[in-house]
Design a protein that fits this description.
Alpha-Beta Plaits, four-stranded mixed beta sheet, elongated
């Protein structure tokens, strides 16, 4: 009896190992995944903070907030960022742009063509406190 290859059979796995990555298929990264990656990258940038206004807490809106526009296999990113005033706005905006460009490509493989950063300054009393408890 001849065994036909199935997706989990050893014959199929050995064929996958010998084919080049171009022949195996493509990776489809969704808008929401890129949005989450960008928002996480923003919060890793020194000087940025998570911020939600009173209305934002009710509606679920806040900062950072990324908007992704796909252009084929590349993307344009618009991101709203919060930072505590006083701060060096130019330095933070440049750092956010650079971090998003490198981290979004590294984690998703999607080339980011442009990053538009809108930086909002807030007072320290309105910043979300994110503390973790260890149990």
């Amino acid at each position: 009896m001849v065994e036909t290859p199935t997706p989990t059979s050893p014959a199929t796995r050995s064929n996958e190992a010998t084919t080049s990555p171009d022949e195996r298929g493509t990776l489809d990264v969704r808008h929401k995944a890129i949005q989450r990656i960008v928002e996480h990258a923003v919060l890793q940038t020194p000087g940025t903070v998570a911020h939600r206004s009173t209305l934002g807490r009710l509606t679920g809106a806040g900062s950072p907030k990324a908007t992704i526009t796909m252009e084929g296999r590349a993307a344009r990113v618009e991101v709203d960022v919060a930072a505590i005033w006083p701060c060096d706005v130019d330095r933070i905006a440049t750092a956010v742009r650079n971090t998003v460009l490198t981290e979004a490509f590294r984690l998703s493989g999607v080339q980011i063509r442009a990053v538009d950063v809108t930086l909002h300054t807030v007072d320290s009393a309105s910043v979300e406190q994110t503390t973790r408890r260890v149990q």
